[in-house]
Write a structure and sequence with these properties.
Radius of gyration: 21 Å
Number of domains: 2
Strand order of the largest sheet: 3-2-1-4-5-6-7
Order of helices and strands: EHEEHEHEHEEHEHHEHEHEHEHEHHH
CATH topology of the largest domain: Rossmann fold
Shape: elongated
Helix content: 40-55%
Structural class: alpha/beta
CATH class of the largest domain: Alpha Beta
CATH superfamily of the largest domain: Glycogen Phosphorylase B
Number of strands: 13
CATH architecture of the largest domain: 3-Layer(aba) Sandwich
Strand content: 15-25%
Largest sheet: 7 strands, parallel
Number of helices: 14
Distance between the termini: 29 Å
Length: 369
């Protein structure tokens, strides 16, 4: 890890530590925008996977640490411990150069090493937990931190005395659409359907959802305009399937403009990562959540459980999911736009102004304005 050169009279520096998935990176980007706007200097420390993401505000310094090698148990445990110790040492040395005032971690063992280095330097460290149950790295980090910021109020395994409910910091490109209303389609209008499988769960949805759409009537299929995010390896096969059933579909492994696609959409089918849950509720788009069955600590199912506490939020279990079930559900959705309009009125989110104030005001309590 290379170190930025310190300069006299710089504003306070805040380090954001994140893993390499969108679930970790995107809320860190939201906080980075807030900090830059407040005049702080921001350094982001992530692993090699995190380098691929764009969307950081101008002025952020991006540094990387190593990731543990993928090995089977018990070598995987030793690999993680070795990686954490090595990364902690490098970050600890780096802190001598750029002298941060605080560290905020967003999960993963890459993040934990940075938190540990900050704690060893006796600076205030904080954690943001995105999901409805704390991951192992954040659980360990909670012993070191001053406060734990929670997306969901009733997050499992979170330390009650340290926790503050802040909601999920959204990327700036979502925050500007706070007051955009939802317009349901008329019965015969073009119907825009978006399917988002996420970074880990796209393969199964890439196979099953097109099969479900094939089972709709010809008239229903002709109404559809589909945006479908799938794995890079599946793009051509899914495109070909939609072409054969004569459905207008745009298929990509990643949509840079996902916020504008969500805004166009009349309905969204998504995995239940915290980012997707909060983004869709913030934009007030009706959606069906299909939690990834293999998600660690079953966090996607727990995220979905928190979501369905509101009326008219739909969830299907992956374990019992079939193309016929999805087709029957879509048939009802296409025939009842009034249900979609009703659903958006029940969507909730913690206002992003509240999220910003709760996080930044807590930070300033420990480091000063």
């Amino acid at each position: 890890m290379t170190h930025p050169t310190p300069t006299a009279n710089l504003p306070q520096t805040i380090v954001l530590a994140t893993g390499g998935t969108g679930g970790h990176v995107f809320p860190a980007q939201g906080v980075a925008h807030w900090l830059i706007a407040e005049g702080y200097k921001v350094i982001v420390i992530t692993d090699k996977r995190g380098q691929k993401y764009t969307g950081w505000p101008k002025g952020v310094t991006l540094l990387t640490v190593g990731s543990p090698a993928t090995r089977s148990f018990p070598l995987s445990v030793f690999s993680k411990i070795s990686s954490i110790l090595k990364n902690t040492y490098h970050v600890w040395r780096g802190f001598k150069h750029f002298k941060p005032s605080a560290v905020i971690g967003f999960g993963s063992f890459a993040s934990f090493a940075t938190l540990l280095a900050g704690w060893l330097k006796r600076m205030p460290v904080f954690i943001h937990e995105q999901n409805a149950v704390m991951g192992l790295a954040n659980k360990l980090g909670s012993w070191l931190c001053k406060k734990v910021f929670l997306s969901f109020e009733h997050t499992q395994k979170a330390p009650a005395k340290k926790s503050i409910h802040t909601g999920l910091p959204l990327r700036s490109k979502f925050q500007k659409y706070k007051n955009i209303s939802y317009m349901p389609p008329l019965h015969r209008d073009r119907f825009i359907l978006t399917i988002v499988g996420g970074s880990q769960g796209a393969h199964k949805l890439g196979l099953l959802i097109p099969e479900a759409i094939q089972k709709l009537t010809t008239e229903q299929r002709n109404r559809l305009k589909i945006y479908h995010q799938v794995r890079a390896d599946d793009v051509e096969a899914v495109k070909d399937f939609y072409r054969r059933i004569e459905v207008n579909a745009t298929v990509q492994p990643f949509f840079e403009n996902i916020e504008s696609i969500f805004l166009q959409s009349h309905f969204v089918i998504s995995r239940a990562g915290a980012g997707a849950v909060f983004e869709l509720m913030f934009l007030k788009r009706p959606h069906l959540l299909i939690p990834l069955a293999t998600a660690k600590h079953n966090h996607q199912a727990l995220n979905a459980t928190e979501s369905v506490k509101q009326p008219n939020v739909w969830v299907m279990s992956e374990k019992t999911l079939t193309a016929i079930k999805v087709a029957d559900f879509l048939d009802k959705v296409l025939q009842s736009p009034e249900t979609l309009a009703k659903a958006t009125k029940n969507h909730y989110y913690l206002c992003q102004d509240d999220s910003k104030n709760r996080i930044l005001n807590t930070l300033k309590t420990y480091i000063g304005s």
